[in-house]
Write a structure and sequence with these properties.
This protein is of the alpha+beta class. Helices cover 25% and strands 36% of the residues.
Length: 382
């Protein structure tokens, strides 16, 4: 979670003011009663963070009361988002020649059916442009036909000679393609360009693939389950995607009409791994062609205590959560975690049913914790 520099400074100033006020109150005299001393002790007890309700609201601190719920075991694997094979088409070179990409055509660009995405040129290539040669053949055949026509009318050539010239002209016409003469590579359908397989300046044969265009219907998730976890295959019931290199919220395929497509029968395709395929709506916040971290969901268990992934913090190899004790105090509590499904993590030890765990605003709770830490050997009793 990112916070502006000004916001963090303002929060620090509020905490500093609160701490100064506490010091002034404690130095007032010896009339502090026992209950006040106990409050002071609780505020500075290791692991206890003091944060007023107003500040908690102001800085977006939210909590969730923990109750036992159903939970699906999951295995974290690597994966890739692919355009759906049933919702994709390939733009190809209409003739042989050197390819050049049109301006503005890149991976991720949206195109319309028939839109030009590149051009093919055979100029300067040994052997010339075959289509240009066909055009020359047409011109020559037409000149010969025009020459013979008046001679036929005057009876100086036979009908067979004229018909042979006419056949040669029609044959030349059939060999010439006006569309190939333009050398345009066009999009065969509307959609998004997910891959460009030809480079600028590359020589392409007629029919060679240039770009892959995917529609806006579905995408495919390809998850790679390690062979050592093959016993998990019969229990796979869903998947949660966490796109690599982003801070996006994990995506549950079930939220986007996702379903299990197939499981490869062996690992021959990718040695050491078994590919598992899901299909989901392209409305999901994922990008075709990108890598992803995937949690394959398995069998369901009931009565599990879990917290959102956002509630956990890790320090020196240990995991912690903040538990709200009352209106102003929060306890930093170590926990033992179990499996995670990408959105929530099972807590084996450390919290109980009914505990209120911080789920948002952890950065400010941590800042409050650091601001109220009393250095060793320091006392507030002056």
């Amino acid at each position: 979670m990112k916070f502006g520099h000004f916001t963090m400074l303002a929060f620090a100033a509020i905490l500093s003011t609160a701490t100064t006020s506490c010091h002034n109150h404690e130095t007032h005299g010896d009339h502090v009663e026992k209950e006040g001393a106990e409050d002071e002790h609780s505020h500075h007890k290791p692991g206890i963070v003091h944060l007023s309700p107003d500040d908690a609201t102001r800085f977006g601190v939210e909590v969730e009361q923990i109750v036992p719920t159903s939970f699906r075991d999951a295995i974290r694997v690597s994966g890739e988002i692919l355009p759906s094979s049933s919702d994709a088409a390939t733009a190809s070179a209409p003739t042989s020649g050197v390819f050049s990409l049109s301006p503005g055509i890149t991976r991720g660009a949206t195109v319309k059916a028939g839109q030009t995405i590149g051009r093919i040129s055979a100029k300067g290539i040994t052997g010339g442009d075959p289509n240009a040669a066909a055009k020359v053949a047409i011109d020559n055949a037409k000149r010969e036909l025009d020459r013979l026509k008046p001679l036929l009318d005057d009876g100086l050539v036979t009908r067979k000679e004229y018909n042979d010239a006419l056949a040669a002209y029609n044959s030349a016409l059939a060999a010439y393609s006006p569309s190939a003469a333009h050398g345009s590579v066009t999009a065969p359908r509307s959609g998004v360009i997910t891959d460009i397989v030809a480079n600028d300046g590359q020589y392409l044969e007629s029919g060679a693939p240039v770009a892959l265009i995917s529609g806006t219907g579905t995408v495919t998730l390809r998850a790679l389950l390690p062979v050592r976890n093959s016993s998990f295959l019969p229990f796979i019931s869903g998947a949660v995607i966490t796109p690599h290199g982003t801070s996006e919220t994990p995506v549950d395929v079930s939220d986007y009409n996702g379903k299990l497509l197939s499981v490869a029968s062996n690992s021959a395709e990718t040695p050491g791994y078994i590919p598992v395929y899901f299909t989901l709506s392209s409305a999901a916040p994922v990008v075709a062609g990108s890598a992803a971290e995937v949690y394959l969901k398995g069998a369901e268990r009931s009565g599990v205590l879990s917290v959102p992934v956002s509630s956990l913090i890790e320090q020196l190899g240990e995991n912690f959560v903040y538990v709200k004790l009352d209106g102003e105090d929060y306890e930093k509590r170590p926990v033992t975690i179990g499996r995670s499904d990408g959105k929530r993590t099972e807590i084996i030890k450390g919290i109980s049913e009914g505990d209120s765990v911080v789920t948002a605003g952890l950065s400010f709770v941590r800042l409050a914790e650091q601001s109220t830490v009393v250095p060793e050997g320091h006392s507030h009793n002056h």
